[in-house]
Amino acid sequence: MAKQNPEIDKITLIDDNGDETLYEVLFTFHSEEFDRSYILLVPDGAEEDEEVDVQAYIFNPAEDGEATEEDLLPIEDDAEWNMVEEVLNTFLDDDSNFN
Questions:
Q1: CA distances to 63, 73, 76, 77, 89 from 68, in Å
Q2: What number is the average pLDDT over the span 33-46?
Q3: Which residues have C-beta within 8 Å of that of residue 41, sequence separation ≥ 6?
Q4: Does pTM surpass 0.85?
């Protein structure tokens, strides 16, 4: 269900103050239940054992798989958030994702 990219993809997000932050793509996945794709991001350079805030978005990439910040939409539905958190927790519990 989750796809971890073989090469680390990165994306720059710009906050409300105009500050840019570079993130690494943790993984992407598609939910059949919500018929949407999602992307989970961690700050660039975060260590495996470092506690970080994971950013999650609805992900609408172009057909070639490329995406920009405009292709990321906020998750506003509680049911979607719960599903994304479950997928993230399953990913984090699987030690093979960190080898």
A1: 13, 11, 20, 22, 26
A2: 91
A3: 11, 13, 23, 24, 25, 26, 54, 55, 56, 57
A4: no
